[in-house]
Amino acid sequence: MLLFALALIAILGMASVAVDGSFGLIQVRRAQNAADFAAFAGAQQLNGSAVCDGSGATPTRYQMVELVQDTVNANAAAIGTSWSAQFLDGLGRPISGGTFSPATVPATPASYPPPGACGLTVTANPQWKPFLAGILGVQQMTGQAGASVAASTTGLPVSIVALNKVGPHAILGGGSGNFIVSGDMYLNTQVINQPWSGVYGGVLFDDAIDAKTSSNLFVFGTIHSSNGTSGGHNLWPLDTCFGGSGPQGQGTGSGVAFQPADPPPDSGDVGDLPSFPLTCGSGSNTVTVAYNHIDPTVAAINDPLQGGAAPPNPALSATAINCPGMSLQTFASVPGGATVLQPGEYTNPVKITTAMTFGDCSAYTGEAAYPGIYRFDKGLWIDPAAGLTVTGSNVVLTTVKPYPVAGNVPGTVSGGVFTATGSGNGAPCLPRATKSSSASGGGSPMAETDGTSASKCVGTVDPTSPGNPEYGAIVYGDTSFSPVGYGTGENYGLMIGGGAGSHVNLTGPTTGTWSGSNNTPGLVLYQDPGTQANDGFNGEPGDAANINVTGVIYDSSLTNYGSSAPLQYWDGTGGGIPLYAGGTLQTGNGAGWSSGGPTQSAGSFTVNGTCIVDQFNTDGATTITIFGQPYTLPGSGGLSLIG
User: Fold this and answer.
1) Which listed residue, of 80, 159, 322, 348, carries a Cα 20 to 30 Å from 133's Cα?
2) Helices and strands in the chain, H and E counts
3) Is 174 within 8 Å of 592 (Cβ atoms)?
4) Is 498 left (phi over 0), alpha (psi -120 to 50) or beta?
5) Taking 70 as the threshold, does the pLDDT of residue 583 lie above it?
6) What is the mean pLDDT of residues 489-494?
7) How many C-beta atoms surround the C-beta of residue 207 within 10 A?
């Protein structure tokens, strides 16, 4: 009997392992299912919400608790309320202050998840009574299961996407400042009808990328250009002068795209040239285009911010740009004495000349910093005085109509007040005696203006001859180079510049509708695609600001491009700066004047992100550096299991 009693304890222990252990495996499996489904259901609710990467409704914390609890009850009722959850960002990282459980249901049901919440970790702790282990003194058994689901995407480092389908100089390096691009570039240009195409080495050079005057363009990456042929020749996106010994760096098949052979340079560092440095010209007119690789096999691309997955246009009145829980704030002008602007709609032109900060929604909501969305109906001009700084972090600055100032758009003056009468066509207003450099003039300086009364830019003042007006640049036809009209203004919807030593620092939101995927900065500067206007950075004479933009710059507002688009150029034979009313990102001012021109720009323009534009032009003596970021644009997210 004694031996049997002792043996019975061991027998019950083994039976408990078999019975209770098997039942425990079932409970843990059910708990794992509950955690998996709850995490996925929570991520589905967050994906596409305003706090993650979309414009849909954002669930409250209270609703998230109910969602997880319902999912747990449906899969493993034994868990009850023994679970906890943690909000995750797009990379699957826990967000500080983002834990919740049934015991911490917010007293205020309207409390929202933290910005950037794109997923969940759910940890379930099932409990159950054993069948046999209780005889041995074990009255309760527990287990644990967890799962994590978040929205995440990856992409390639892309610096510039040029969507213009018309012809040459979609990306143009001009003036005398270095133009450094670290990352890949995409070109949509295909030859239709333009004057500088030339055949060399059996390839038609269609002049989609060019450099002029005394500029240098360095591309530490791959240039992807539209495929196709013209006149039986394959297209190559450079000027004929950059043919060298024939096409260099060409891919051997569809989709070939070598990564940069050299590390990206620091800002302004041109000592380490890319793989293929090609030089054109001689003496003081020598320019260089250097790149690591050209892949001419890419089909024409569509505007990535006009697709079905793209975020809504923040310029439209139907798009909600208000801070959470508030009505749209509308301002007729910048409040007097303000040092911090608040998100909302500004119905009149806005010019900033003092130290200023673009605020996000934190001042309104009192909670975590939701992005601040701004809508400038009649343009924005950021022009801080020397030494001052303008900043904006976690913001989207949206512009619509061109800023109404003389020389930017045509207009009239009455009583000393300038009133815009229409839109500009993209060409500048210049002093009467302006002549191009010999490089821009095809070997000899050419007159940029003719000084006739018909070409006056109303309301402008010639800085070299106070009291006299400036004149529209002469516009030449695309085939004969005969004058066909005059420029009527640069048509800037956004103007960013400033005095020497001034700084403008802008960063896009990492959460919400217009953020990038994986919590990268998203749209920071957005021009309404339905209203033609250009973006100008240090684009006014004498501008010398140090401009830093982190995020996506978007201006695809050239509404008439394709086979029917006008092809006209200013800056004379050999220069060929395209004249467009919209979609141009213009950096710098002053095309290396021979005489009489406005003061060249200085300063710097640095982008840590992607520029999606129709056209990218540089000019003046401003240094331009584009550090391409992963091509994870707003609206490109998707769910993936990460744990």
Assistant:
1) 80
2) 3, 46
3) yes
4) left
5) yes
6) 96
7) 26
d(CA 139, CA 491): 79
Which residue type does 209 have? I
- Quick one: tokens of 482? 């005969």
Task: Kindly give, in sequence order, each residue whose CB lies less than 8 Å from that of residue 154, ignoring residues fewer than 6 positions away.
Answer: 518, 630, 632
Q: Is 4 helix (H, G, I), strand (E, B) or coil?
A: helix
CA dihedral in degrees (65, 71, 77, 83; nearest 10)? -40
User: How many residues are present in the chain?
Assistant: 643
Give me the residue label for tokens 């043919």. Answer: 243
407 to 104, 342, 376, 460, 540: CA distances (angstroms): 60, 30, 20, 6, 10
Nearest 5°: CA angle at 584, between 583 and 590? 160
Largest CA distance in the chain: 125
pLDDT for 267-277, tens place per residue?
Answer: 445 566 777 88
Q: How far are the Cα atoms of 83, 298, 305 from residue 612, in angstroms, in the given order?
A: 45, 17, 9
Q: Under a CB-based contact definition with an 8 Å cutoff, are residues 570 and 437 in contact?
A: no
616 vs 423: CA distance, rounded Å? 20
pLDDT cut 70: percent of the chain above it: 81
| Domain ranges, ordered by start, for the chain | 2-104+112-152, 163-301, 312-427+476-635
